Description:
By secondary structure, the chain is mainly alpha-helical. It has one domain: Arc Repressor Mutant, subunit A. Helices cover 71% and strands 0% of the residues. It has 6 helices and no strands. Helix 2 packs across helix 3 and helix 3 (40-52) crosses helix 4.
Amino acid sequence: MDGLFLLMRSLGISGTHLGYYYLHTAVELVLEDRERLLMISKLLYPKIAAIHNTTPACVERNLRTVITACWNRGDRERLYQVAGCRLQHKPTNGEFIDLLACYIRKEEP
């Protein structure tokens, strides 16, 4: 299991959600090209949808679902550690993907 899957599990995000796999793909794509975060709806969601044979709307909804699950039932202290600060509100999809990508970039050589 790679570091990103371990990170997601440590946050309380389980593989029982489709969004788990979409999130993994999203972070990998952002690690390849950070510019994808600038146009998340036009670049990132369609790319993830094509990879997983679904629609961009489905990707967006399932990402929001796993982020909400992480925020409501996950390890909030671990999330703060990953973010580097105490978050005041549930992160948006783009903010969450960015948090994970930055953490992975920092932690893995």
